[in-house]
Design goal:
Helix content of chain A: over 70%
Main location (chain B): cytoplasm
Protein name (chain B): Vacuolar protein-sorting-associated protein 25
Number of helices of chain A: 6
CATH class of the largest domain in chain B: Mainly Alpha
Structural class of chain B: alpha+beta
Family (chain B): Belongs to the VPS25 family.
CATH superfamily of the largest domain in chain B: "Winged helix" DNA-binding domain. Chain C. Domain 1
Number of strands of chain B: 8
GO molecular function, one term (chain B): structural molecule activity
Number of helices of chain B: 6
Strand order of the largest sheet of chain B: 1-5-4
Number of strands of chain A: 0
Subcellular location (chain B): Cytoplasm
Largest interface: A-B, 17 and 21 residues
Mean pLDDT of chain A: 79
Oligomer: heterodimer
């Protein structure tokens, strides 16, 4: 119940006083009831004692008195009930008042907040943000357009170059140690073709020799 | 509210209280001449009186009637405390804040016969009542002093039937803390109290 603490000073209002008065009345009634209850018990005792002594008249009188007091007791009971109901309704009304106060406070705050967010403001804000978004789109459009086809090609070329570099990097790593062994073989292989190359020449010369007699 | 007197204060309390072993020690009932012994005897007596009053929920002791109680009379060992010794013990308890003489008719302090026994100090009572107000949702409620001591809601509470003087002192503590305010009835008597939430 936050609104209690924000009350300027803790004062006793006239409502409080009224409640106190009623509660005091209730206390008085309760005390009265207690007293009557004691008397009731006492009178029953008196009646019994009178009966024991054989004094029927006295016993009857005591019981009659007692009956009257019992009626009083039930009357005070109903009075007490009325009083308590009234006190409770006042207390409940006070609670309701506080609730109402809280509701008022709340709706006031809500109103103030709503005033701060007026329709014009919201519209303007939405317009502004729409403008901002449009501008942003324009900027990105411009940036996209500024890259020409030539530049695009250059970019492609750069990508190709990078790929090649990658290839170059991967190829030479494989034969590093085997290369020296492979060299002699490679030399023989290289030599053979020379012999083979000579052979056709020889055959050619032979053939020429064979052909010469024919010619001759 | 002078009409309120707790029912236990005048009648003889029940004898079911479990007395400590010192209670069966005959010299305990005689004022010891040695001052050191007397000091320890005093503290033993005062804690016994506090425990006894707490057990029997006695708020006030009237020396003239209390001197007959089993508290000051051990019939098993046929020993009883003298009135002067009892008064001395209570004097010492008053000095320690465990009791308070109720200023009677005379201004002469030696004629005091009635004392409030604080088996709980007013500050403790204040805390207990404040907790009770809290737990029963009675903040900002108006209660009569009678209601606190005898009402339906306080039925099982420790302060049930609390002596009006002690209650008033406990409420004073709460008032000083800003947690309560005394209300006067139409005829100017302090009759009610309004409780506030603690700050």
């Amino acid at each position: 119940m936050g609104n209690y603490s924000s009350r300027p000073n803790r004062k006793i209002t006239k409502h409080d006083r009224a409640i106190l008065d009623m509660k005091l009345q209730r206390d008085t009634l309760q005390q009265y009831q207690r007293r009557i209850q004691v008397i009731l018990d006492r009178e029953r005792e008196i009646a019994r004692q009178c009966l024991e002594r054989g004094d029927k008249e006295r016993a009857l009188l005591a019981l009659r008195k007692r009956k009257y007091k019992v009626q009083l007791l039930s009357k005070t009971d109903s009075q007490l009930e009325t009083l308590e109901r009234l006190t409770q309704s006042i207390e409940f009304a006070l609670v309701e008042k506080d609730v109402l106060f809280g509701l008022q406070q709340g709706s006031q705050v809500l109103k103030e907040i709503n005033r701060e967010m007026s329709m014009d403001k919201v519209e303007r804000l939405l317009d502004e943000s729409a403008d901002g978004i449009a501008y942003q789109n324009e900027v990105s459009q411009m940036l996209a357009d500024s890259i020409t086809n030539a530049e695009e090609a250059e970019i492609e070329e750069e990508l190709e170059a990078m790929r090649r570099e990658e290839l170059v990097k991967t190829i030479p790593t494989a034969p590093e140690t085997e290369l020296p062994q492979a060299q002699p073989e490679a030399a023989e292989e290289e030599a053979e073709p020379e012999e083979e190359a000579e052979e056709p020449a020889r055959q050619a010369s032979k053939a020429r020799n064979r052909a010469e007699p024919l010619l001759a | 509210m002078s009409t309120l007197t707790s029912p236990t204060s005048s009648s003889t309390p029940s004898t079911s209280f479990p007395f400590p072993s010192i209670y069966s020690f005959p010299p305990f009932f005689t004022r010891q001449p040695n001052s050191q012994t007397w000091t320890s005897q005093l503290s033993l007596w005062s804690s016994l009186i506090l425990a006894y009053c707490r057990y029997n929920r006695i708020w006030r002791i009237d020396l003239n009637t209390a001197i007959e109680w089993d508290l000051f009379n051990n019939r098993d060992i046929n020993r009883s405390l003298k009135l002067e010794t009892c008064r001395e013990i209570l004097d010492s308890m008053v000095k320690n804040g465990d009791a308070e003489w109720v200023s009677g008719s005379g201004s002469n302090p030696s004629k005091n016969t009635s004392a409030i026994i604080y088996w709980r100090r007013p500050e403790e009572w204040a805390n207990i009542i404040a907790d009770w107000i809290d737990s029963t949702g009675q903040k900002n409620a108006i209660l009569t002093l009678y209601e606190i001591a005898e009402g339906d809601l306080s039925y099982s509470q420790d302060f049930r039937g609390i002596d009006p003087t002690i209650l008033r002192k406990a409420l004073d503590v709460l008032i000083r803390r800003g947690q309560a305010q005394i209300m006067k009835s139409a005829d100017g008597e302090e009759a009610g109290v309004k409780f506030f939430g603690s700050q």
